[in-house]
Design a protein that fits this description.
single chain; 292 residues; mainly alpha; 10 helices; globular
């Protein structure tokens, strides 16, 4: 049995446009890689590969413009070069920091292509909602790699530490801090210390809340309104004449009955025809043989 994603087979989802449900799965993989991979030498390449696949797939499924696609491809090449440089020189602060910055550069291009694709849409579908969630997750990943890059480029000592908590902090701590900040949970177990750290943390919190209040809430409200209108249009209320006719004929609820008003509506949707314009027999009226 083929794997289905939002009514599409996996092959169709890969090649089709607006496969943002599949893109969400790619982003979950990227999140797990950032959380779990902590190799001093090969971590740069291990992180760059899945994120590069995600970025290129986002360009494809969003039908990105040529200059945006070229910028993404250039960012992917530069990020791989940074990963190779980190593999050669080892876990040097500057090399590792630049590698993370280049990964963030790849991710920054992705929301531009996604939002350009979904914002002009007049209707909201499931894939549109997935696109908004994808952008939200990408924002968290962007700030996560930015936190790590700042901590690597400005190590303590001699600089002020990024986090107030002393000791070694793996990349997973910064990814955790990013999404805790983005969702404004704020447990307080990890807190920024330097002025730079506080600035970027506050910036992420603002962007996350503005994004939720504006785009995601707007898309969800439009999606709910569309489906509510579609549901109401299918639920036609039973008029007084139909209820009287049902009582006269003894028809049960759910059974169809012939209503003169229905016949008028079928011939003339505006209901302007009068009784004299339509020859419909009343169920209780006498037959032709009984008429005088």
């Amino acid at each position: 049995m083929p794997i289905a994603i939002n009514g599409r087979t996996l092959r169709e989802a890969v090649w089709a446009r607006e496969s943002y449900g599949l893109l969400f799965i790619f982003l979950i993989v990227d999140y797990l890689v950032l959380m779990l991979v902590n190799s001093p030498r090969w971590g740069g390449l291990a992180r760059t590969l899945p994120i590069a696949v995600t970025v290129l797939f986002a360009m494809h499924t969003s039908d990105a413009r040529r200059h945006v696609l070229r910028a993404a491809q250039a960012a992917v090449v530069i990020a791989f070069a940074g990963g190779i440089a980190q593999a050669i020189v080892g876990n040097v602060g500057t090399a590792a920091g630049i590698s993370f910055l280049l990964v963030g550069l790849m991710l920054v291009i992705t929301p531009v292509a996604i939002l350009r694709r979904v914002l002009p849409k007049a209707t909201v579908e499931v894939e549109t909602l997935f696109a908004a969630v994808d952008v939200y997750v990408i924002i968290g990943l962007i700030f996560a790699v930015l936190f790590i890059a700042i901590a690597k480029l400005y190590p303590h000592p001699p600089h002020v530490a990024f986090l107030a908590q002393p000791g070694y902090h793996p990349p997973s701590n910064y990814v955790y801090l990013s999404f805790v900040t983005l969702t404004t949970v704020g447990f307080g177990d990890l807190t920024p210390l330097s002025n730079t750290a506080r600035s970027v943390v506050v910036l992420e919190a603002l962007i996350g809340q503005i994004f939720l209040v504006t785009l995601v809430a707007r898309l969800v409200s439009l999606y709910s309104a569309e489906h509510r209108t579609s549901f109401i249009s299918r639920q036609r209320p039973e008029g007084p004449s139909r209820m009287r006719l049902r009582r006269r004929t003894g028809a049960r609820e759910g059974e169809s009955v012939q209503d003169p008003e229905d016949a008028r509506e079928e011939l003339d949707g505006d209901g302007d025809l009068g009784p004299a314009d339509l020859d419909v027999a009343d169920p209780e009226s006498p037959g032709d043989g009984e008429r005088r």
